[in-house]
Design a protein that fits this description.
The chain has a single domain (18-124), classed as Thiol Ester Dehydrase, Chain A. Helix content is 14%, strand content 37%. It contains 1 helix and 5 strands.
């Protein structure tokens, strides 16, 4: 009697994070190996990471630090990328978010693969680009 190989359960996106962006990378976003440029993914993570802090900043803000950026799997042309974000720290002038990126492969939609995770810090700035206090309010 033969045994069937064990397969891991499909990954599900996090339930405690907010879906802030969905995007499909195209051939123009790929490198010579046919994978998507890491820099393109980083730019998308920065956009996705800014969504929640923008609600708190109530004005201009700037990315000031990328504390961690991990590429776990390659991103491929045609993947449906879902970017989930969560505020992890709210300071006087700064906000830190965790961003996780999951790919639904073109031919395996509904099955998620975690491809990237990052931690980014944004600072609220005034018209002269100087740090300013993040307004305190309940969202």
């Amino acid at each position: 009697m033969s045994s069937t190989p064990t397969t891991s359960r499909p990954i599900r996106p996090p339930s405690d994070e907010e879906l802030v962006l969905k995007v499909i990378p195209m051939p123009a976003d790929s490198n010579a190996n046919g994978d998507i440029f890491g820099g393109w993914v980083m730019a998308q993570v920065d956009l996705a990471g800014s969504v929640i802090p923008a609600r708190y900043a109530n004005g201009r803000m700037a990315t000031v630090a990328v504390k961690e950026f991990i590429f776990k799997q390659p991103v491929r042309i045609g993947d449906i990328l879902s970017f989930y974000s969560k505020l992890t720290h709210l300071g006087r002038t700064s906000m830190t978010v965790k961003v996780e990126v999951f790919a639904e492969r073109f031919r395996a939609q509904g099955e998620y693969v975690k491809v990237t995770e990052a931690s980014l810090t944004y600072v609220a700035i005034d018209d002269q680009g100087k740090p300013r206090e993040v307004p305190r309010r309940t969202l």
